[in-house]
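Following the same procedure, backbone shapes were mapped to integers, yielding the entry below.
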Amino acid sequence: MAKAARMSVWLEESRPGRGRRSEQPSGLDRERITSATVKLLDAEGLAKFSMRRLAGELGVTAMSVYWYVDTKDDLLELALDRAFGEPEVSGMGAKDPDDADWSEKVRRLATEYRALLVRHPWISPLVGNYLNIGPNSLEFSAVVQRVFARTGLPMSAQRGAIASVMQFVYGYGTVEGHFRQRCADVGMTQDEYFRRTMTTFTAPADKPEMLRHAEETMAQVEAGGTVEQVRDLDFHVALDLQIAGIAALVAREGQA
């Protein structure tokens, strides 16, 4: 008989063993285990994470951790939901007749999401692997929907608007977070890593335009700027284009 597919830690049924309170490992609970998981993922990344490594960090045996979760996937899903509780989105999208500027809400939401992805580079590979139906993930999704509902777009168009902005931020934040992690892994600042790359890589002679944007970035860095400042500028220009597109669609829908 084929093994049933794992769905979500949030849908699992309680294991009978969890009722044996007298046998539970002392000093442990899901909150502590989840916090330690997030801390370990931030410090060492997703590839190095293991139940044994987590147990060592907690000072217990791996079997003690398994009392509270069935699999490593459970832990990763719990950590993912914990991270989605970090963005400052409380109240964002609530109905307020004195605050009609939906674009500012979109900007704030996009900025918070980008910061989350950069702060925790391990998040992006997990987002598409799990159902993301934990309480924090659901609240974040609800805020996203409320914010985009305020654009005035019909429901059918709101889905595309959400995809346009949030998928853009996901991609931008993922690349940014992984680049920062790569620099940290090799012991360089982002500016140092960028300079090293620019001085060792040569574009093919038949494609001189390949490095044009990178060279412009290098010039800005050499003039006293930073890679992060250039990246921030690029992000906000791109986000402006996303918002302008939504505004144009809102105007078109209003004329229909």
User: Anything to note?
Assistant: The longest helix spans residues 155-185. Confidence is low (pLDDT under 50) at residues 14-22.
